Batch of 3 targets.
Target 1
Amino acid sequence: LAKTTQPISMDSYEGQEVNITCSHNNIATNDYITWYQQFPSQGPRFIIQGYKTKVTNEVASLFIPADRKSSTLSLPRVSLSDTAVYYCLVGEKNQGGKLIFGQGTELSVKP
Amino acid sequence: GAVVSQHPSWVICKSGTSVKIECRSLDFQATTMFWYRQFPKQSLMLMATSNEGSKATYEQGVEKDKFLINHASLTLSTLTVTSAHPEDSSFYICSARTGIDNQPQHFGDGTRLSIL
């Protein structure tokens, strides 16, 4: 399974756009990139998933360059409630969908 | 959609007892379920992969006789921590996915286990 590397922590202010970049140099052809959000004492919550280029949903955008060795989660206009740990994972169906969590990025949004 | 429910959400028990945690997919059939544990300020650690109707596959270093996993139906998997000791105290989280290609895993809200 491809290993991911993210910044350990990031700080932001309310209303700003936050971009969290994840490195996955050993990503395999069949791997998808998935991002999760976790609040204390809760299970991770699915944010977004993509394979290449750009994916957007109602809460975030995911940018994936052509070489797919990295990805960037973009959170538009964050609020205090976006303070959480964000995990970037890569995995694919032929491995039973197994995901190995890295350390994640602890995002702190300040007023 | 894609709701995963865990029960109980919090349990305290005496050392030496066994504790069962349930993980249910409420609105989809889960061909595969996963069990994780998480210590404070740490990431999730995958313990085992559970496929309906077959034996679970445990990650290296996870004692299969200590952590019994059963996945008897497409909507229910259970984790039993046998003869629990204080070092087994942790946050246990399950996830489930369908057999549909590249669908993401959906996680339960975890079970806080405290062994006295």
Target 2
Amino acid sequence: GENVEQHPSTLSVQEGDSAVIKCTYSDSASNYFPWYKQELGKRPQLIIDIRSNVGEKKDQRIAVTLNKTAKHFSLHITETQPEDSAVYFCAASQGAAGNKLTFGGGTRVLVKP
Amino acid sequence: KAGVTQTPRYLIKTRGQQVTLSCSPISGHRSVSWYQQTPGQGLQFLFEYFSETQRNKGNFPGRFSGRQFSNSRSEMNVSTLELGDSALYLCASSPSQGRLGDYEQYFGPGTRLTVT
């Protein structure tokens, strides 16, 4: 089955700096890659996603890049703010019938003011 | 629209007991997926139900089971609880009219299960 690895497990950045989280996946059939943000004590929320036919997608300060050949994708957060502090999860799905997501282990991001 | 709701929110059980958790999806959503979240194993897929049928299954033992009713509400059951079953159990709903990415999967607040 699919395996998703996520690095780093923790990331501390100064407010205003950029943060980058990287994930690799094993199943070349995976074609949908969402990123979730989970604040302490709250549910995961989708912040951005990308399909395998797209190399990059941006939404304000957040961007995701995908390298299908190398089977890795990354989340980029620019101009970080204290409210960006949370745990971020990457995931992969084959996108076939059904909604099965395989998650990475998570990255705890701390933005220091 | 009301969001995904899960009951109960917190639960304490003893090893060997069984437990049933409930998930009510967003109105109109027909797919319900269940995930287990632990500090050590992260978020792991348990199973997905669509139109009362299990459509996908993760790598969990048979002690973990689920079902879905005609109104799309779903329950999951864990029998013979073990200490390692202590976790946050999340459900997620989606309309499932197409592929993931064509629509968003919305998570519920979770049920925190503690096994003593």
Target 3
Amino acid sequence: AQRVTQPEKLLSVFKGAPVELKCNYSYSGSPELFWYVQYSRQRLQLLLRHISRESIKGFTADLNKGETSFHLKKPFAQEEDSAMYYCALDNAGNMLTFGGGTRLMVKP
Amino acid sequence: GAGVSQSPRYKVAKRGQDVALRCDPISGHVSLFWYQQALGQGPEFLTYFQNEAQLDKSGLPSDRFFAERPEGSVSTLKIQRTQQEDSAVYLCASSLALQGAEQFFGPGTRLTVL
């Protein structure tokens, strides 16, 4: 069975500092991985997916199959990045398996 | 265009009552998903429809939970004889019928069972 783990419930950094939100997964097949974000009082929305290899709002994530990780990174955090971040895995059945989420707080 | 909508946004039920939660997906989206999100946790899959067909209901926690999408558009999640452990946010999402397609989420229904 697939599983997604986000080891940090809360990550607090100062504005301008680098950010890394950790995500590890277990899945026997070839995974499709996503990062979803939920800003305060807004709905859950897609931030980025590994297949598109995009940089969205300065965030990037690299799939490391050897370490079964998909960590989210940003070199310089901004206050508007404060939000809940969820790593998710899409199995062949299209359902998403989510991690427990990490709350990112960027302090001024 | 309009996104996924859900109603009601908040529901308070007494233990033992039946509740019905509604989801209006994005027009043209074939796939529809229901998730349950307990406080402080990530969303957990409940069930999945492709058009009117319920293809996966493996996440429904008990036979008190029932979902339908009779015309392949609007979906209803029904919970019979609600229990306190059913208190959660229920999220609906829709997507195009493509593997790996982005799921668009509704605002959720917060259910509180007293």
